[in-house]
Amino acid sequence: MAKDLFKRRWQQQWRRFAKYLRYVFNDHAILALVFILGAGLVAYRNFLITMPITIVNQCLVAGVVLVSALFWRVPATFIAEADPLYFMGDEKSLRDLRQMGIIYSVCVRSVIQMAVLIVLLPMMLRQFSQLPGVLWALLIGSVALAIAVMLYTGRQATQYAKQTTPLLNWRGVTQLETRRVQRILQVFSWFIDVPEHKTDVRSHAWSDWVIKHWQTKNGLTNLYVTTFLRTNDYIQLWITMIVVGMVVVSTLDGWLMIGLLMGLIYLFTIQVLPIMIAYRQRVFDHLIPVTVKQRQKAFHQLMGPLLGSMLVIWGIIGLIAGLPVKMILMVEIILVLWALALVFLYSDRKAENMFKRR
Asked: What is the SS3 assignment for 82?
């Protein structure tokens, strides 16, 4: 029974992911991906040619290889929330299903880690060509570390604290599976609307501090700021765009770099746009007379500091990477104009269309 259930849920899950992949990788996206991949390979080749063989670089490469094993660490269980109740009299089937999910996760995680190693292999060969023992230790050790981290994460999340019996925390098992699926759907939600994706709202000490010091006279702006800083999806998206932009600035140059940075700003803007309609199902959103102009102004006041900080960080990385100051200024001016157009023209038009359909 567990084997049939595992097979059915595995197939259902991959059919759902394949449906979203078809929307993400449409004709235009594939064309852009091929262009970006080609440019990335050229930049990677140039980077390898100019990368000196030093102890510092060897330590950095080894660190990157080992750190890559710490990602994608949540194992699959394929156990739904109702399963512990449904299988109350047949816990063995539930344990078998969990075990099959862990074996599946180990296989998939190993393939992912080997794919990452293939990408990093040219860099590793350049730095450790004279040290084959270290090279093999990194290759085998990173895969082993990735599997160990995944098994440890699964064990910690599915056992009770101070446990002295072999009982499993089935609530933790189901929450682990929900978290894994939601993280995958979160990536799809960056590009398309995913109705199944649920946002995670949490209060953190640092977010409360920022909210306290980011107060304006516009109450709607304060509401948008609080929503942004306490919604993990928005924060993770913002950090991801900054990190990807840092990689682009430090590895590429010219119009390709500018085009990719403009794409990141556009992607970030369209993903934050729904914050304007986040409260339209609340009663006060209908009782309090808030106009579209006021919503647009609040959105402008939210996006200004966010996009501005992104551009400042990218500019600093450009200086550290040794780009000419004139080139950095030109890129910053182009990106500022692009951001202003997106925030004051594109987002305003989108807001008008969204609230016309109320």
From this structure: coil
Are 18 and 146 in a shared domain? yes
Phi, psi for 57 (deg, rounded to 5)? -65, -35
* Cα–Cα distance for residue pair 343/351, rounded to 1 Å: 11
Residues in the chain where the model's pLDDT stays below 50: 358
- What domain range includes position 347? 205-356
Radius of gyration of the chain (CA): 24
- What pLDDT is attached to residue 282? 60
Is residue 200 situated within a structural domain?
no
Assess whether 9 and 98 both reside in one domain. yes
Residues 22 and 163 in one domain: yes
**Residues near 306 by Cβ (< 8 Å), separated by ≥ 6?**
228, 238, 268, 272
Residue among 263, 273, 264 nearest 241 (CA): 264
Can you tell me the distance from the alpha carbon of 192 to that of 29, in angstroms, rounded to the nearest whole number?
A: 12
Asked if 34 and 74 sit in the same domain, the reply is yes
Model confidence, pTM: 0.72
What is the pLDDT at residue 335?
95
State the total domains in the chain.
2
| Pairwise CA distance, residues 22 & 316, whole Å | 37
d(CA 330, CA 313): 15
